[in-house]
Amino acid sequence: MGFGSVSFVHADEDTPLAQEMDKVSSSLKGLRKAETFADKIKLAQTAQKATLKSLEYLPILFKDIQGKDLAKGTADYKRLIGLTYAALCELELAFIAEDDAKADEVVDKLKALKKEGHREYTD
Fold first, then answer.
1. How many angstroms from the chain centroid is the CA of residue 2?
2. 75 CB neighbour count, 10 Å cutoff
3. Alpha-carbon distance 121 to 60, whole Å?
């Protein structure tokens, strides 16, 4: 992905990036009310799609960064999004296996990734 194909947006406002992250968050919150593993699988898949879509945007914090700093920040942002996507796939696998204990473990991993991402890339 080249830098030219990515939009800079505020992650904490009503922007495309925030909207995608809200879909991830809403899907994960929806797990508490989901009654079946099939419902949980659908929520995990919705979060996966939004996570991939978020790669089209960069946090606004990057707009004044250039050169190697931009490359480093962009790579790290993509790393976090990739780890989040991988964890969401693990979550889907846990639901397919009907393994609530594994799902809880993965949700904890997702919470830690969210915390790291917000610490690094939000105002």
1. 20
2. 9
3. 8
Tokens of 17: 């990036």
Helix H or strand E segment including 49: helix 37-53
Q: Under a CB-based contact definition with an 8 Å cutoff, are residues 51 and 20 in contact?
A: yes
pTM for this entry? 0.86
Q: What is the mean pLDDT of each run of 10 residues along the chain (123 residues)?
A: 41 76 95 96 98 92 90 95 98 98 97 92 78
Q: Which of 34, 53, 52, 55 lies closest to 43 in space, CA to CA?
A: 34
Token digits for 11?
Answer: 């992650």
Q: Is 88:66 a contact under the CB 8 Å cutoff?
A: no
The Cα 24–Cα 97 span in angstroms is 22
List helix spans (H) across 54-99. Answer: 67-96
Q: Contact, 56 vs 7, CB < 8 A?
A: yes
Q: How far apart are the first and last CA of the chain?
A: 25
Name residue, tokens 């796939």. 89
